[in-house]
Design brief:
- By secondary structure, this protein is an alpha+beta fold.
- Helices cover 26% and strands 40% of the residues.
- The protein is built from 2 helices and 5 strands; from the N terminus they run ββββαβα.
- Strands 4-3-2-1-5 form a 5-stranded mixed sheet.
- A hairpin with a 4-residue loop joins β1 and β2.
Length: 82
């Protein structure tokens, strides 16, 4: 099973205020499909945007061959610069 680390949309669609979960999910699943594990969250609506991720879980998945999406990779780089 190929695993990808990507964002899964959550939040209030009617109000247009989405937040996202950072999840490990099978590559063949849809964006909002069933995930394997939740690694963190991202809320771009807050000022400044909130991004939190469990580095231990992230490293575990990366060591086992998971691939990060471009968006998650960018967010992780920004978080590590802080």
């Amino acid at each position: 099973m190929e695993v990808k680390i990507r964002l899964q949309r959550a939040g209030q669609a009617a109000k247009g205020r989405y937040n996202y979960r950072v999840v490990a999910i099978s590559k063949s699943r849809s964006r909002d499909g069933k995930h394997v594990e939740i690694l963190g969250h991202y809320d771009p609506a807050k000022k400044p945007a909130v991004f939190a991720i469990d580095q231990e879980k992230l490293n575990k998945w990366l060591e086992s061959g998971a691939i990060m999406s471009n968006t998650v990779r960018t967010l992780v780089k920004k978080e590590n610069k802080k």
